[in-house]
């Protein structure tokens, strides 16, 4: 397998450009009437979205030509900076409050949303942590626990803004990264089940969240209150039909659908371009997802794979939650549709994330690896060199001969001391060292056959009735 720096993934780049352009045009058509009613220029929000797109494309270009290992070196600093912004937004007089939530830093006209920055920073940090802790990945106390502590702190800071939708995105994205990294399924399942219960309790704590749950189950019983936005969104989707009404011809955007240019912009898009337009938009999203996972599959190392998976998953999670809310499959959570909904910080951070993906794509392998590099436990050469050096040091201090082979580690007289030095239990130390998940399964299968053959009667012994 050869790796060398080459051109970025232009298919992904073109798809993202198309989504960004569609987003700017749809924001214009969805906000035009609202701007006029507010005494603003008809293209007020569209111009702001266009400026955010230009800034985001600049960030995309910069991230594309910065080697992605730059993020590995600065991951802890980025995470601390993101947490600092989440704390600063809570300071009275600093955080900008709107619609009952304090989620922004800055003035009314120019502000940033730290929770969007925290999502990308957390993806980078988890990719860094689960790469650095690779030799002890199965030690949950030293890998899973610190990862979940960082995830929990981020979610709590976002939740108290309050912004439960973004907190949900952060949690689901973190679960995807942990699963892809090879964390055992049992702790992930327990964590997910606990989070579901805590999330349900959190939704019941606030009246507006409870009303959203009621509107989800019984929207037509509250057509003028909590169910109004959902009903208007469904009406817009139904009015779109097969081919739609045409550009800037949406009736729902004339004042029937509240803030149609933000979370429910997909309903306006459907009304204007119809269900065929929806298929085209979803096809472009599918291309982005396909190229993201393709980059992860061909990445040259574990950090690049986890980074590509996490950034792609963050876009998938946001899109699924938004589309599910607009189409009545999920409760309304206030999550924007990536690249389409109005929102400067969200657009800039998503474009920057695509830039990091393109940076990974510039160093992908030129051919498909024979083994899954994401499942590597540890480099054989690295562990062999480490063991040999440790054996030489013990030989000098004790006068005993070093262990000759890694395969004999189980019967080595130094097994206890090596396990103590590595901070693992004897049970973990007995496990064979393998290069990949596939190789570890083959080694385990061979070990079971050998154990059966050593027993009286061999593998074909008869059991007593």
Automatic annotation (TrEMBL):
The chain crosses the membrane at residues 12-30, 50-71, 78-95, 115-131, 143-159, 165-181, 188-206, 273-293, 305-327, 339-360. It catalyses: [GlcNAc-(1->4)-Mur2Ac(oyl-L-Ala-gamma-D-Glu-L-Lys-D-Ala-D-Ala)](n)-di-trans,octa-cis-undecaprenyl diphosphate + beta-D-GlcNAc-(1->4)-Mur2Ac(oyl-L-Ala-gamma-D-Glu-L-Lys-D-Ala-D-Ala)-di-trans,octa-cis-undecaprenyl diphosphate = [GlcNAc-(1->4)-Mur2Ac(oyl-L-Ala-gamma-D-Glu-L-Lys-D-Ala-D-Ala)](n+1)-di-trans,octa-cis-undecaprenyl diphosphate + di-trans,octa-cis-undecaprenyl diphosphate + H(+). Pathway: Cell wall biogenesis; peptidoglycan biosynthesis. Residues 415-430, 439-454 have a biased composition (Basic and acidic residues). Residues 414-465 are annotated as: Disordered. Keywords: Cell cycle, Cell division, Cell membrane, Cell shape, Cell wall biogenesis/degradation, Glycosyltransferase, Membrane, Peptidoglycan synthesis, Transferase, Transmembrane, Transmembrane helix. It is a multi-pass membrane protein. Pfam families: FTSW_RODA_SPOVE. It is found in: Cell membrane. The keyword Cell division applies. Its EC number is 2.4.99.28. The keyword Transmembrane applies. InterPro entries: FtsW (IPR013437), FtsW/RodA (IPR001182). Belongs to the SEDS family. FtsW subfamily. Peptidoglycan polymerase that is essential for cell division. This is Probable peptidoglycan glycosyltransferase FtsW.
